[in-house]
Fold this protein.
Amino acid sequence: MILRLALKSLQSRRTSVLLTVLSIMVSVSLLISVEHIRTQAKESFNRTISDVDIIVGARTGQINLLLYSVFRIGNPSNNISWESYEAITAANNVAWAVPLSLGDSHQGYRVVGTTAEYFTRYKYANKQALKFAKGEIFASPLEAVLGSEVAEKLGYTLGDNLVISHGIGHTSFHHHEDSPFTVAGILEPTGTPVDQTVHVSLAGIEAMHMSEDEQKTIQAQLQQGLMPELEISSVSAVLVGLDAKFQSLFVLRQINQYEGEPLTAILPGMALAEVWQIVGNVENILRVISILILISSLLGMATMLLTSIRERQRELAILRIVGASPVTIFLLIQLEALSISIISSFAALFLVFISLLIGASWLGQNYGLFIETNVFTTDSAIFIAIVLVATALIACIPAISAYKKALQQGVQSR
């Protein structure tokens, strides 16, 4: 009976109620979407590189090694000798090892020297493999495979030539113009640093750092259909896959105690978690902003109900005449507030679900955020419960006001 009366009362003030519902709906949507995207972004960040058990580099901190090997930020403190790479490859429990060579760039985009195995071993998100939008893996030392953003922003297509520069800045004073690379393939978007990378072979890295005469010899051999044999001296990092993940700590200790040269081996998951802790304050700020917006909307609802009570003196008087107690009036106002919040909360869930359904693929391709569209989770239920409790508390302001007025009317009627 009271619920039906509350709904009828809200219907009679549909314009102001609708605006209040929209205000709370936006606030709850913001709170749920920030929390959902925060959680999913953290998982996506941790899946920037997957199916790689260990990353090896020269002696350095684990965050620095992760940043330059995975995110292409910064430079290695030193290189690893080719002999050490071969020792890692031959070690027990190591299933595969992919070398990376860094230090050059093309118009601000990082160049990574690697092997053909990189394109089958590198995984991201839920162990998704790299796919080619055009072309194929480089087959000769002077061919390159471009990330999607490099190709799109610089307007490259298959068969185009590009010149690699020494160093990682946008401006370089040393260009390897004697050994231009031909675009052999373009990768599909991944939303990871792979999109901003120019991939070449390790032999290509060695070739472009040779003398002009040696480069001419290499180009002559390639024109004759011969594959030049180039000796690789060192690499910057190594991505390692193991026969079984439970062997990670054992192999990690082996590499860190390697006597040939000082090496650092890290577990990508642990390093990613440490990096995320550094940026954790940002997510807390977003959460606080969302909560403040929600509180302001609930206070707006309380103001609307408080204002309506002053305009509903006649309605309250009639309710008192027909036998409604002050407690009934108090519960009526509370039910009106809770009805608004319940409608707003479920509308907010539906709005977030539709938004994610539409934008999930775009977020994945452009920002590497692989967001699940299911927002009907335990966390969402907890948030809605918190919103309802907060509504009940804030609605006490107009409800107590209505209660007092009902008492006054009862006294006056006597």
The CA atoms of residues 25 and 345 lie 6 Å apart.
